[in-house]
Design goal:
The complex is a heterodimer of chains A (243) and B (165). Chain A is mostly helical and 243 residues long. Helix content of chain A is 78%, strand content 2%. Chain A has one domain. A two-stranded antiparallel ribbon of chain A has the order 1-2. Chain B is an all-alpha fold. In chain B, helix 4 packs parallel to helix 7 and helix 6 packs across helix 8. About 8% of the residues of chain B have low confidence. Classes of the chains: A mainly alpha (243), B mainly alpha (165). Chains A and B meet through helix 1 and helix 2 of A and helix 2, helix 3, helix 5, helix 6 and helix 8 of B.
């Protein structure tokens, strides 16, 4: 017999009757009515939902920093030291992430976060989002005051040091052992460079500054995407909202 | 009714979608269970339990267009549970279950005997592929084997059937 004929013979097997289908429907309806409905939360929904819990301490710290910025830059006037001060405040703004990033590792928050069935990485992204909002406010104030003191320098002395410090810090935290120390060391080195070379840096072309900012932004984005992907592919526990 | 449509309607609490789902797949699943359990009563129980399990874990099913294969996989596991002991090859001769209305023509009886003579692994692929109408990829998913293995088992089974028939 040819394979085609065999296949036709197999396919020709008639469908059987189906006793018990009504009972199956009845049982399935009972199971369906009893089951708890699950709704999977998206990453954005979790992050926004967590802001009300994680944002307060972050914004308190950044609020204090904002006062410092206003006092320091408001009285700095113009000159090399004023520009270096702007860079210093921008780096300090970037470093506000450090105490909150290290906290969960230091205090063993993994167990609590696992018990609440919320991903550690998504909690961290929520903290980053809260920090980001505060950073925007602080940087805005620093930029305005810097522009008042020395017009045209905000890009090199506020945006660039912030971008470099943020990217360097997050990279160090994600990849290097003793990440917080490495991040702090990088920030200190960055401020030192700005302090020593403020006058030279004030002559840096805008295009070069923009390119450096773009590079730093790229590193920052890559680190955030990596963290988001780790969460998405279930390296931590999944979040489920029981409704 | 497509898989996506089922999930959408069930997600919005439409129980008629559940009825349609069960009634659409129940005859095939029952037929599968008849070949993989000891008797008619066990087959009905296994088929009903299959659907209950599917409904219970519906939220865990990620839509990838393989709903039918997923359902057969549940049926296979359920039938294995019903057997408990190491799987026994079910005879497909007249002494065992005979599908009601099945044409007892001589050729069909020869086919039954030939299927019974196949190794279980090959017979499973042939039954899922041609009697239950699953695609080869779906058969591989149900049997938890690589696609290439399913292909080679199908080829070997057809060759063996050709010699026997």
């Amino acid at each position: 017999m040819k394979p085609r004929e065999i296949k036709a013979l197999l396919r020709a097997t008639p469908a059987a009757d189906a006793p018990g289908v009504d009972e199956a429907v009845r049982r399935c309806r009972a199971v369906y009515a009893r089951r708890r409905t699950l709704r999977r939360l998206g990453a954005a929904e979790i992050i926004v939902g967590q802001l009300r819990f994680v944002a307060r301490p972050v914004w308190l710290v950044q609020g204090a920093l904002l006062v410092v910025i206003c006092l320091a830059l408001g009285r700095a006037g113009g000159g090399r030291h004023a520009l270096a001060m702007s860079a210093l405040t921008a780096v300090l703004v970037a470093l506000t992430i450090l105490p909150f990033y290290g906290r969960s590792e230091r205090h063993g928050m993994r167990e609590i976060e696992a018990a609440t069935r919320v991903s550690r990485v998504k909690l961290l992204l929520a903290k980053l989002a809260a920090v980001g909002v505060g950073d925007a406010v602080c940087l805005g104030a620093a930029a305005l005051l810097t522009l008042r003191n020395a017009p045209g320098t905000a890009l090199v002395f506020v945006v660039l040091p912030f971008a470099l410090a943020s990217a360097g810090s997050l990279f160090a935290l994600n990849h290097l052992p003793g990440g917080a120390f490495a991040a702090t060391g990088f920030a200190v080195a960055l401020v030192s460079v700005y302090w020593a070379m403020a006058e030279r840096l004030s002559r840096l072309p805008a295009a070069a500054a923009l390119a450096a900012c773009a590079l730093a932004a790229g590193v920052l984005a890559a680190e955030c995407i990596k963290m988001a992907r780790d969460a998405q592919f279930g390296k931590d526990m999944e979040e489920i909202l029981w409704t | 009714m497509g898989d996506k449509e089922i999930r959408k309607r069930l997600g919005s609490g439409d129980e008629t979608a559940l009825d349609e789902l069960v009634r659409a797949y129940y005859p095939d699943i029952l037929r599968y269970c008849r070949r993989h359990t000891a008797d008619e009563h066990s087959a009905e129980d296994a088929a009903q339990e299959t659907f209950c399990k599917a409904v219970r874990h519906l939220d865990a099913y990620v839509h990838r267009g393989k709903f039918r294969a997923w359902l057969y996989k549940i049926a296979a596991n359920t039938c294995a549970d019903f057997w408990r002991a190491p799987r026994r090859d079910l005879p497909l001769t007249g002494e065992a279950y005979v599908e009601p209305g099945f044409d007892r023509a001589e050729l069909a009886q020869d086919l039954d005997a030939a299927l019974a003579a196949l190794p279980e692994a090959q017979r499973e692929v042939i039954l899922l592929r041609y009697v239950h109408g699953l695609k080869l990829r779906e058969c591989a998913a149900v049997l938890d084997i690589p696609l290439r293995t399913a292909q080679s088992r199908e080829r070997a089974a057809l060759q063996a059937l050709r010699k026997l028939l």
